[in-house]
Amino acid sequence: MIFTEGKVIDKFVLKNGEEVVIRFVKRSDAKGLLKLINSLVAERAKILDNKKYTLGEEKKWVKEAIGNSNEKRLIYVCAESSGMIIGGLGIRIGRGATYRIGELGLSVSHDYRRFGIAKKMLGTVEKICKDIYVDMIYSSYFANNRASMIFHRKMGFKKVGKIPKALDYYGKWVDLMLVYKKLK
Ligand SMILES: CC(C)(COP(=O)(O)OP(=O)(O)OC[C@H]1O[C@@H](n2cnc3c(N)ncnc32)[C@H](O)[C@@H]1OP(=O)(O)O)[C@@H](O)C(=O)NCCC(=O)NCCS
Fold it and tell me: What pLDDT digit, counting tens, does each position of 84-116 carry?
């Protein structure tokens, strides 16, 4: 399996009739991904990022992501509709003793939630993980992120536990939940 830049992996139609493509990240995605991450920061989504990025920072991130993808250290897919990036999901693959474990991170644009986009992206990436012998993934989320909590549970993640008051959510301490899923 080669993580070819921009290669389309899946296509499906949303219940509102829009077509969504799931594909590997490509160099020209910086603007689209910047819009997505900055919209999440603007809505104060319960994610680790809490300050907006610049285009220069995002270009650097995308360049690094593609470099890591080429080395099979990262699987990063985008969900795209009408030329707009509406979701992103990445699995960062471990080093050394953790080479069979991947760390998940994901988000979907506000207006496209509850359409099954995160579920589709995760399903796509889980198949790729198995192809490259990554057989366990883990994830973490703000304990008060209800959508994330239900999403992970529905997708088959099991709770490991929580780190109390680990995260600063705009001045309020929140617990960090840790979950994992075996793929085989
Ligand atoms: C969490 C998040 C990624 C889910 O993405 P999504 O595309 O809306 O999720 P899906 O539509 O694929 O949902 C799959 C299932 O997860 C559960 N789920 C997802 N969002 C939910 C919500 N807000 N409330 C209850 N259940 C939810 C449901 O069981 C859903 O299936 P259903 O719609 O058939 O009932 C999205 O809400 C998001 O990006 N939030 C902001 C950023 C964030 O919190 N990122 C996660 C950090 S760990």
Answer: 999 999 999 999 999 999 999 999 999 999 999
Task: Assess if residue 3 is contained within a domain.
Answer: no
pTM for this predicted structure: 0.97
- Residue with CA closest to ligand 1 atom 28: 151
Residue-number span of the structural domain to which 53 is assigned: 8-182
Q: Whose CA is nearest to atom 22 of ligand 1?
A: 147
For residue 123, give the H/E element and its range.
Answer: helix 117-131
How many A from CA of 181 to the centre of ligand 1? 17
Q: How far apart are CA 142 and CA 105, in angstroms?
A: 12
142 CA closest ligand 1 atom index: 48
Residue 60, domain CATH: 3.40.630.30
Distance from residue 95's CA to the centre of ligand 1 (Å): 29
> Would residue 2 count as lying in a domain?
no
Residues 6 or more apart in contact with residue 47 via CB below 8 angstroms: 40, 107, 142
Structural domains of the chain, count: 1
Residue closest to 128 by CA, chosen among 22, 37, 31, 14: 22
DSSP 76: E
The per-residue pLDDT for range 9-68, each reduced to its tens digit, is 999 999 999 999 999 999 999 999 999 999 999 999 999 999 999 999 999 999 999 999
